[in-house]
Amino acid sequence: MTTPSSNTQSNAQGSFGAMLQQARKTKQVSLEEAAAELFILKRHLQALENENFADLPQAAFARGFAINYAKYLGLDATKVASSFDAAYPNELKAQASNNTDTPLRPMGTLQRDTHNRIRFNPLLILAVIGVIVLAIFLFRMVSNASKENNEEPIATADDVSAIEQAQGAAIEDANGIGASGSALNLGGASTSMAALDMTLTDTAVVSITDASGNSLISGAQTSGNYQLSGMPPFNVQIDNIDNVRLTLNQEAVALESYATDKQASFELAP
């Protein structure tokens, strides 16, 4: 009595790449259109359909791509994920377990399974913020004292920070809306750093940059808790708000007020 080969069993269960490709063709969607909707590179979607695992990022990210792609095409995401896990080569899994360099390293992300990752001390962050606020306060006190005494201004254009120059260039109208289209309250705008706490209940594509252009997080993220900090306002883009909970300085952000078809793109400031 003979037993079925592993290839026969795999064909019986179905190829997840073929399922994805067939569903996309049935939906009459091109790879370019799917990539634009999912914020996933076209070559990664092509690699999923061809089951070319060497052209994909690490297993956790590639698996998240497969799940999001399946949901977008109306397939059973659990079935596709199981088929992906079964097809993923063991040698790539071994490489991933020995590779400590991830393609994305979000600022302040909580990592429970790594040992060589930098840990952020909340007290140290608060101390840095306090020093920045104190420096700005003292700078403004000196500037005001100089103006009252009809002396030369201490700060020149080269001494003013990039953020203060941006605030000075913004034109405020009667509604308090700056020239850039963002809500700017120039009279009392805060130049202190702000804290963002983000919880993902499922895989989602999230991109957040701060006012200085620093990318705090970008791309597909797996479920978990993320602590970020930067200079507001923040530019936030989320592909599915149902999987994301966001707070700014411990105040919940109503993502649904910014969303269209579960996708949100907006500026966020305290």
From TrEMBL:
InterPro entries (UniProt xref): Bact_Cytoskel_RodZ, Lambda_DNA-bd_dom_sf, RodZ-like_C
Alphabetic keyword roster: Membrane, Transmembrane, Transmembrane helix
Record-linked Gene3D superfamilies: lambda repressor-like DNA-binding domains (1.10.260.40)
Pfam families, per database record: HTH_25, RodZ_C
Coiled coil spans: none
Listed GO MF terms: DNA binding
All copies of domain Cytoskeleton protein RodZ-like C-terminal, residue ranges: 198-266
Transmembrane segments annotated in the record for this chain: 120-139
Record-given protein name: Transcriptional regulator
